[in-house]
Amino acid sequence: MAAVDGGEVDHLAGERATAHFDVDAMKVAWAGSRHAVEVNDRMARLVASDPVFRKDTRTMLSRKELFKDTLKKAAHAWKRIVELRLTEEEANLLRLYVDQPGYVDLHWGMFVPAIKGQGTEEQQKKWVPMAYKFQIIGCYAQTELGHGSNVQGLETTATFDPNTDEFVVHSPTLTSSKWWPGGLGKASTHAVVYARLITQGKDYGIHGFIVQLRSLDDHSPLPGITLGDIGGKFGSGAYNSMDNGVLRFDHVRIPRDQMLMRLSQVTREGKYVHSDVPKQLLYGTMVYVRQTIVADASKALSRAVCIAVRYSAIRKQFGSQAGGPETQVLNYKTQQSRLFPLLASAYAYRFVGEWLKWLYTDVMQKLEAKDYSTLPEAHACTAGLKSVTTSATADAIEECRKLCGGHGYLNSSGLPELFAVYVPACTYEGDNVVLLLQVARFLMKTVSQLASGKQPVGTTAYMGNIQYLMQCKSAVNTAGDWLNPAAIKEVFEARALRMAVNCAQNISKAPSQEEGFSELSPDLLESAVAHVQLIIVTKFFEKLQQDIIGHGVKEQLQNLCNIYALFLLHKHLGDFLSTGCITPKQGALANEQLGRLYAQVRPNAVALVDAFDYTDHYLSSVLGRYDGDVYPALYAEAWKDPLNETVIPDGYQEHLRPLLKQQLKFSRL
Ligand SMILES: CCCCCCCCCC/C=C\CCCCCCCCCC(=O)SCCNC(=O)CCNC(=O)[C@H](O)C(C)(C)COP(=O)(O)OP(=O)(O)OC[C@H]1O[C@@H](n2cnc3c(N)ncnc32)[C@H](O)[C@@H]1OP(=O)(O)O
Ligand SMILES: Cc1cc2nc3c(=O)[nH]c(=O)nc-3n(C[C@H](O)[C@H](O)[C@H](O)COP(=O)(O)OP(=O)(O)OC[C@H]3O[C@@H](n4cnc5c(N)ncnc54)[C@H](O)[C@@H]3O)c2cc1C
User: Fold this and answer.
1) Helix (H), strand (E) at residue 332
2) DSSP secondary-structure letter at 406?
3) Is the CB of 178 under 6 A from ligand 1?
């Protein structure tokens, strides 16, 4: 089952023949199960073979054309989902492979989960079926012009009026205008709006409300509602398919039962009642989406890496003095040392994403049973992993562009658009720095509780080993010693713990905890990153303990896991040295071992990206084609540009001809 939808000749056949492992079995390890490979493959092909889902001219469309194209694709996708009676799993994958951001992402990804998570059973019964049938389209309207990161600072108000049993939703200032919600600008009929609840003269803080925005008859905004799109965004094509919107309310009335009342209620008389649950559950939808964003990071990263690896195997430069063939750029050690850690990261993020999904499901089950003890851990893990994986992926896509040289800068390489679509992931669903500071808070709390003898659990369990980890010295003596998982885990644990303890000690010297936290925040960020990287490394090792079938698959994954860990060690050598976890000599040995691992990956590189099982349609890159027939495709693609529709360009008569025909007027000339 090869993901070929390219030409007849396989220019990468030689590369595929050198692989030391069973690619089909690796597809199973990557996708999670044989079933997952099958359903992914079927949905990817369904999309690739449907002309409505073509995207090769997307970067050449105007904003209006692009938006209309997005509406068409979303409606067609829905039609196919209904006609083919696709399951929810299949439908999600179909949307993924359509690969065009649009209102449906927010409808399914945030609006529906917000109602399911924060609505009472009655509210769910009323709203969810309408949303499932697309009788209404919803978005998630939280961020405002003046406030995004600071959710408690939102200004929109929802004031209860006991005379009419309604809330009056209002935007009191310009900065309280809702600003950014995807799908809001043009498509949504409804929104979950976050606003300050005011009743009986008291402000009870932020709560969620379902508000109808547009008429279900003619889609015009309802009275008191001002709506629009916030304007063009970074890059051509890319996230411009999404109608991120602005919304203002002028005393808009909604029935009381449109407040999402699972966590707290307002009675008919206007009394505020808070259920016996942590108020942070209000943030539940964000936790859910952060978890999905980690899974998406491995998708985006693996796409970019697939393009860069295949093209690096095709591209040749220098190498022969005697007129023989030039060298494949993939053979250059520098290319390998830039590219293979990214390949390893794609696998690492895939597996940690799988684990995070499990953690999230587990926490949800506990919440159902009124056990809230794992909520802080779930928040720290989703926030931290969202932050680290999206930042690294955004950087990696740009690195892959550079790894593809000049051709990587062409839209037809697929990389500029992928980068432009992906970078906002560092900002949306929580700015990455703000989220890392949340992780740091969690770590500082955990460290402070160690003194009282409280044993940390979950991903901070290693901190309980403080006596040992604060003074241990790595026993690594040879480069090969770095292949021992225990040796790697020990130094990653010691680094993370020592950085956290250093921060805690320095904070305790400040006049107040708050001042210390603020002063130390750059160090706290690094401490949080160290902790999150430890989680990723640990989860990769744990994956290797599972039953992994197929010839050579486990060995390849072991190599990638070691590359991921040793690459991080090399990149953050300063941390490991300054905390005394390793010596400079041990750092050099790690680097030596990395070089050996790259050599082992080299013959397997193309097969390792084939295991992602991406169709050419999904990759949408002439450089990443499965068949490696890059040059004819690049050449043909150029001719499709609208500029090449005519030989003589528009503007020649007005601007070029007069210039070329002008009489020389300068005496000096
Ligand atoms: C059948 C058909 C199927 C069809 C198929 C289609 C399916 C499609 C599926 C699609 C899936 C996904 C799509 C994804 C698309 C993505 C598109 C982009 C979306 C972008 C959307 C957004 O951006 S929405 C807006 C997001 N905004 C933010 O993230 C704001 C960030 N800020 C915050 O979260 C908070 O303000 C803060 C955490 C930074 C601070 O909050 P606050 O001031 O209240 O808190 P404190 O810091 O004082 O902390 C108080 C205590 O609360 C704890 N805390 C904080 N947050 C949480 C949390 N989330 N959970 C649990 N606990 C939390 C904090 O730790 C403190 O605890 P203590 O220290 O113990 O007191
Ligand atoms: C493409 C896109 C889609 C979006 N979709 C939605 C949506 O559907 N619904 C929705 O409600 N919102 C949406 N958003 C909004 C998004 O969630 C916010 O932009 C995001 O949470 C960041 O908040 P901000 O813009 O207020 O950034 P700011 O907080 O203003 O960040 C500006 C800078 O300040 C720094 N900073 C802020 N606070 C601190 C601090 N405490 N300590 C140190 N540094 C700090 C940040 O690191 C950053 O460098 C979207 C945004 C984008 C870009």
Assistant:
1) none
2) G
3) no
| Mutation test residue for ligand 2: of 145, 242, 427, the one with most atoms within 8 Å of CB | 427
CB of 140 closer than 6 angstroms to any ligand 1 atom:
yes
What is the Cα 9 distance to its own chain's centre?
Answer: 35
- Residue that is written with structure tokens 């040992």 in the block: 468
Q: What does the block give as tokens for 488?
A: 């790697």
Query: How much distance in Å is there from the Cα of 237 to the middle of ligand 2?
Result: 22
Cα(209) to ligand 1 centroid in Å equals 17
Q: Which residue minimizes the CA distance to atom 29 of ligand 1?
A: 430
**DSSP-based three-state secondary structure for 589:** helix
Q: Is 106 a pocket residue for ligand 2 (Cβ < 6 Å)? A: yes
Active-site positions read 429
Question: Pairing mode, if any, of strands 157-161 and 138-141?
Answer: unpaired
182 lines ligand 2 (CB under 6 A): yes
The answer to ipTM > 0.90 is yes
Q: Is the dihedral of CA 216, 219, 220, 223 positive or negative?
A: positive
What is the reported pLDDT for 64?
Answer: 97
Tell me the ligand closest to 101's alpha carbon: 1
Rounded distance from Cα 141 to ligand 1 centre (Å): 13
Q: Which residues pair with 197 in a beta bridge?
A: 158
Concatenating the DSSP letter of every residue in 279-300 gives: GGGGGHHHHHHHHHHHHHHHHH
Distance separating alpha carbons of residues 46 and 94, to the nearest angstrom: 8
The dihedral region occupied by 144, where left means phi > 0, alpha psi between -120 and 50, and beta the remainder, is beta
pLDDT in the model for residue 451: 86
- 501 SS3 class: helix
List of the chain residues with pLDDT < 50? 1-6
C-beta atoms surrounding 166 within 10 Å:
18
pLDDT value, residue 662: 85
Ligand 2, residue 194: give the atom nearest the CA: 11
Residue 108 has what DSSP assignment? Answer: I
Neighbour-count burial of 9, counting CB atoms closer than 10 A to its CB (0-12 exposed, 13-18 middle, 19+ buried): exposed
**Ligand 2 center from residue 173 Cα (angstroms):** 19
Both ends of the chain: CA-CA distance in Å?
Answer: 68
Which ligand is in closest contact with the Cα of 440?
1
Q: Within 13 Å, how many C-alpha atoms sit on residue 479's CB side?
A: 11
Ligand 1 center from residue 428 Cα (angstroms): 10
**Closest atom of ligand 1 relative to the 150 alpha carbon:** 36
Angle at Cα 631 formed by Cα 629 and Cα 637, nearest 5°?
A: 100
Closest to 145 in 3D by CA, of 108, 165, 171:
171
CA distance 52 to 617: 12
Give the torsion through C-alpha atoms of 199, 202, 206, 212, to 10 deg.
30
Gyration radius of the chain over CA positions: 27
Phi, psi (deg, nearest 5) at residue 228? -175, 180
Look at residues 528, 529, 538 and name the one whose alpha carbon lies nearest to residue 488.
538
d(CA 210, ligand 1 centre) in Å:
18
Q: Would the CA dihedral through 138, 139, 145, 149 be positive or negative? A: positive
Q: Ligand 1 pocket, 184 CB below 6 A? A: no
Distance CA 493, CA 533 (A): 10
Task: For residue 64, give the H/E element and its range.
Answer: helix 63-83
Whether 517 is in the pocket of ligand 2, judged by its Cβ within 6 Å, is no
Ligand 2 nearest atom to the CA of residue 139, by list position? 8
How would you label 74-104 residue by residue, b for 16+ Cβ within 10 Å and e otherwise?
beebbebbeeeebeeebbbbbbbbbbbbbbb
- For the whole model, what pTM was predicted? 0.96
d(CA 289, CA 383): 10
